[in-house]
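Extended Data, record DUF4832 domain-containing protein
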Amino acid sequence: MSLSLRGRVSAFAASALLVSLAVAVGGVADAQTRTYTADFATVIPNPERGFHSRYEIINDPAVNDWANGGASVPGFNPDLLDRTFARAKTNGNTLIHSYLHLDNFKNADDLPQALLDNLDSGLDAIRAAGMKIVFRPTYVWDGWSDATETKILRHIGQIGAVLTANADVVMHLEAGYLGAWGEWHTGNYADPFNQDQAATRYRVIKKILETTPDTIPLAMRYPIFIKEIVDPTSCVVPEGCTLTQAQKDRIGFHNDCFLSDYNDMGTYDNNSWMGWFSIEQKKQWMYDRQTSTGHNTIMGGETCNSDGYNDAAGVNVQAEMAKLNFTEINEDYAAVNTDKWKATQLAAAGNDPAETAFTRIERKLGYRLRLVSASFSDSVQPGGQLTFSANLSNDGWSGPVKRRSAFLVLDDGTHRYDLPLPALDPRAWTPGTHAVPTQTVTVPSNVTPGTYTLALWLPDQATSLRSRPEYAIRLANSGTWNATKGYNVLAGNLTVGPCTPTCPTNEPSPSPSPSPSPSPSPSPSPSPSPSPPPNGLVLDNFDGSPVYPSAYLNDLGKWTGANCFLDGGGSGTVASGALQLRYNNCGWFGSDVGVDLTSKTYLVVRVKGASGGEQNHFNLGLGGATKLFADYTLDGGGHPAITTSYQDIKIPMAANGINRNSPSQLAMGFWFGGNSTISIDEIRFE
């Protein structure tokens, strides 16, 4: 195939985007490749990473002694109660850390409603400020913690309900509850050699994971306890070790004495009933910690009031943070370390400029995504296909830890079209370089022709935060960030134009004309037609035959039904040939399959949501596999992302553990705290 090259110059921010080349992409319209100017020096206040600042999120003195003016607690500072988080914002931080003090309630069967309400309002304040929280409950600030397992488990459930309702602004949880400061030492259930206590520790972690959504990671204090939970040498829990792999994947590490000495003040030198392990082994466990899909887990913490393993040259802090894939750390404690980092001047090295150790840490904590080059279509027709691929680098110490959506955006200042890239999962962009494979999206057929800005948008996964630019990822490039829109500009001059007579058409080619005949001319044939007919084996397309739900049959003639939805007697309603399911933390849908699917590869759900992001609100079960819809893996490693426009979400069945030989029933459950409406146009197998 011959390739034609022609030069192009961007009309947008010429200083930021370099000269472009256009190449013909096989089978599609010409595409252009652009390179982008790196920004290696700016400290970018990206979400879900960086230094954190400590605050008291509970500001009601009736339920928090820390909020009573400081009379009964040493080291109190009224600034800790500032719900505008001015200090954190001045420092450029996007994370705050807060303890939940439960000292006065350790013997209570139920936590006071005033405490739970105040926690809820505090989380509202975090949302209003455009920040997220790292959260830790504790029964003792300094001393022996003797809260009982029964009370702890009860309180976890109550707190978990509030956190679930505000999961959009919870960065991650620190396990807490056990021991002084909630650090799993100096208290009941904190003896690593006690197997009975190991069972309690397991149940505490299990309860936290079960009462909070899977979008919230959980960090634990000691490597030996992390191994005890995720990879024990044997199970000592009488009811069995039943954590799922998805729950284990949520578990990371918070080192609360980072760099205090070689053992980090006991962090690495504890051993247990499981046996004896060297300090080096336990460090390596944490260096190697990642999810089963190869993503980085949460790693954070703070330093101690000691710097025995720190160094004035700033070498150890960089090496350890890189090996641990550090995402966040406390800026407020301890000054013996943070002051040293601010005073340490580092020479330029590789892509890192000359700067203080503090600034280098501030830049590289967590992810630092940089676009190297991108290829995308020269132009596109309404209803046509737009292609995109890229090369990028992560110059930070970790990949994004939390699930995040990706979109291409077409924006002409009046009209904006957000085109989802469901196959992309930014969590896969761990430190190093990455080639983003070609993505193809369909431009809406009703798009207004004109010249558009093309952008890459990486918003928060939560629909409640998606429209807020402070929660979107800014790439480390010069001249590409639109702070008002929260997206990264790829080009400022993409043409979306109406079809000309030479445009491709879906109409069939004309047949050869028949020879002239004396017979009368035939009657005109009907014009050719949803749209092509549905592909594959249709389970439900809700077109009125059979009638849903009165016939209680799907298109295969099998049983179907639903309940607990807010319309249609609980079964949902059909409108415009689609099933609309309006739910509020309740609802189930079931449709028997009952046929062999071994000749089919994909489960295809054609779906849209009222707000977008509804993939986190329900699970889907088929052929022995049941997962949150967002957790199914698509071709290319991405995950489903429901938008406000219909799209075909194609789930490879074998890769997701679905038994195609015996698929049984396709079922969906909506008990995950969500409140929205999804419209299902069709469910089929291809």
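Summary. The domain at 537-685 is CATH 2.60.120.430 (Jelly Rolls).
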